Amino acid sequence: MKKNTVVIAGAGSTHTPGIIQSLIQKKDTLPLKKLILFDIDEDRLDRVKAVMTQFIKDNYDKELEVIATLDYAEAFTGVDFVFAQIRQGGLEMRRDDEKIPLKYGVIGQETCGPGGSISYGIRSIPGVIKIIEEAKKYSPDCWILNYSNPAAVVAEATRRKFNNERILNICDMPVAILLSYSKMLGLSDWTELDPEYFGLNHFGWFTALYDQTGKDRLPELREKIISTGMEACSDRHHKDKDWQKTWKQYAEIVKDYPEYLPNSYLQYYLYSSDVVKKMDLTHTRADMVIEGREKELKEEYNKFLADPDNYKSPVQEFTVFGDFIVDAAASIAYNKGYRYLVIVENNGAIPNLPADAMVEVPAYLRSWGPEPVARKPISSFYKGLIENQLSSEKLAVDAYFENSYDKALQAIAVNKTVSSTSIAKAILDDLIEANGEYWPKLEKKSY
Ligand code: G6P
Ligand code: MN
């Protein structure tokens, strides 16, 4: 079995220990020759390196070469896979993305609404493009698996820029949801369910869940969710206190719209004003992550600094984030053809949506790329919601490539989370200021 060189781009993230844990646990699925940790932020990279080095040594074959670097050439030369998970502007800018819209009574969320889709989208695009260009420069044949958010907007940008040549945009949310489903159905693993699913990233629905006997378990699950609620995802990431609220809210969506089972992110669009009421402008999710995962990692690093020679990394808990990217890479590396929910160009997979929409659907992951599964046309409710969201996402990408204020305003105004143009304008002006150099200079067109 060929061994792989993997570079984690954005390795200073608190998600990296989870990926490393999965690489270790799945060392027979995706054997490694070399693991490269790359980041542009030295402090963050140092922290992850310090906390994880001994852990890797203790748990992987001695031959595995591990390096941490800030240098593009060193990071991207001779690699088979790039696991990209960058966050332009860090959690500090996530905070602004959440708080600015919320100040105007609009959803303030990492990947949804004016802050998540538009602000973070326009900021993220150049960062992701840079990583991909560097990767392709030094390793033209590598595969780039991209988790960087907002994945829907980023995927549209990479489609336009690179035709998504050896680039696969992915998200762990469907897997997190499937993990809960499989537990509720008494199955031992989420991969025992073959889902039918359609939509955009963070904006889709499960329409069937086939088990290994070929039986669709969705009707049984629907009843369970409505009568007893949704079971929380059990991985390290999605079980924290704040995520519990999402799992609790999940059953409400199913009660109102029982036809299909939703992606949990639909709560922000279908219940915008209710969710806003529960959000706290002085303490949003970014604050919780800074005070939670970020703080824990810093504390671990301090333990290392206090006594580097005797430092012992804690046992890393399983995350679907780590497991999914490793499985997806293995499917591509060895042409396994595993069937996963990934973000691909539509091209008829959902017949009554535009061919050039980046949709999230089941696809077989082959060494030459994803082979999406086509389905029947979707009905009005879903089509209307998706087309609305899709236009907002495409307009955000237009705004970036055309440096267009007008397109950015349209992207915000058309978004379902925004009810009025006066609010859209006020939010956009604040976002321009907050993003500073992260955004291109947006120009108003003269008519
Ligand atoms: C899910 C989504 C990711 C998102 C994350 C946010 O896993 O799929 O795209 O980044 O949730 O979680 P957090 O704990 O950072 O709020
Ligand atoms: Mn996601």
Overall shape: globular
Rg over CA atoms: 21 Å
Percent of residues in beta strands? 5-15%
Multimer state: single chain
Strand order, largest beta sheet: 3-2-1-4-5-6
The overall pLDDT, averaged over residues, is 98
Biggest sheet descriptor:
6 strands, parallel
Series of H and E elements: EHEHEHEHHEHEHEEHHEHHHHEEEHHH
Structural class: alpha/beta
Poorly predicted sequence stretches spanning 5 or more consecutive residues: none
Count of discrete alpha- or pi-helical segments spanning 4 or more residues = 16
How many β-strand stretches?
12
**Span between termini:** 61 Å
Domain Glycosyl hydrolase family 4 C-terminal: 197-418
Binding site for substrate: 94, 149, 285
InterPro entries: GlycHydrolase_4_CS (IPR019802), Glyco_hydro_4 (IPR001088), Glyco_hydro_4_C (IPR022616), Lactate_DH/Glyco_Ohase_4_C (IPR015955), NAD(P)-bd_dom_sf (IPR036291)
Active site: 172, 265
